[in-house]
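A reminder from the course coordinator: this example appears on the midterm review sheet, so study it carefully.

Given structure:
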């Protein structure tokens, strides 16, 4: 049997990366928009700030969307 590696969850990492306070919820529309965007492209945040979609950002968003579906 293969041993599964435990992983660290960094609380607030996605919020910090997006520049949204941890106390506020990240809009699902924004998460879906980032998820649909290709890595390397830019996405406009509600605050008017443009952010580049990195592999790590894409991974974090995918994780949040998967967890929130449960």
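Designed residues:
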């Amino acid at each position: 049997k293969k041993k599964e590696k435990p992983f660290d969850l960094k609380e607030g990492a996605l919020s910090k990366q997006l520049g949204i306070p941890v106390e506020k919820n990240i809009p699902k529309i924004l998460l879906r928009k980032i998820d649909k965007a290709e890595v390397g492209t830019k996405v406009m945040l509600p605050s008017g700030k443009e952010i580049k979609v990195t592999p790590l950002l894409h991974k974090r968003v995918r994780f949040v969307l998967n967890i929130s579906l449960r």
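The beta strands are 42-44, 50-52. The chain has a mean pLDDT of 90.
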